[in-house]
Amino acid sequence: MADPKGFLPSGRTVRCANCGHSWYQTPPEDAAPAPEPETPAADATDTPPEKKAPAKQTPPERPAPDAAALDEIRARAQDRMRAKMTPAKAAAWAGIAAGLAGLAFLLDTYKAPIVAAWPQTASAYALAGREVNVRGLVIEKVAHDLVKTDDGAEIEVRGQIRNVTGEAQIVPLLRAGLTDAAGAELAAWRFSAQEDVLEPGQSAAFSGRAPASLDTRGLQVRFVRKRDDADA
Fold first, then answer.
1. Would you say 31 and 4 are in contact if contact means Cβ atoms under 8 Å apart?
2. pLDDT tens digits, 3-50
3. What is the per-residue DSSP string for 165-204?
4. Nearest-CA neighbor of 10 among 24, 23, 26, 22?
5. How far apart are CA 199 and CA 146, in angstroms?
6. Which helix (H) or strand (E) is 119 found in, with range?
7. What pLDDT was estimated at residue 142?
């Protein structure tokens, strides 16, 4: 018979040593419960050692490539780009470049007619450093003298107008203005040149007088503009 001390409180399966028959046997009512296994008390001295964080490793510094190595890298990159450039692509880029060059030539050659048709394009030409003479006329050789008359001193302005185009141009009225030291206009008057129309390359003289002012420090001569009438 099995030792009752070896039974758990709920019983256990046992087997006969002679015949090998197995059955589930509960412990007798007066049997003492099997003692629970003792759990060893933790020793206060058995504290696991603290884990130290691994030290950070600084990667070794890489030497900077020298100028020769950089030039070689650039040369290889350029060679790869040339290898990718097929004849068709090269022809397309050449066509685009030729088209842009032709457009720039036309815009520069016909800038005067373009600005005459679209005045707002004059500012774009000015930003590009290409001043546009819409009238095709230039004012040059401007000079002035102080002339005494019975009515007082007058300023006489003289010079010439020249046609710089290949076509006949109508000569508009001229406008002279006297300015003070700050650039403010003191007086202005209009006058005409000796010719109303100038052929290509032809010049015409002009002159005009106005009362002088003691505060006069500057003189400006230009063609009459449309907005001059609005400012008058």
1. yes
2. 555 555 666 777 777 777 777 677 666 555 555 556 555 555 555 666
3. SSS-EE---EEEEEE-TTS-EEEEEEE-BS-SEE-TT-EE
4. 26
5. 33
6. none
7. 92
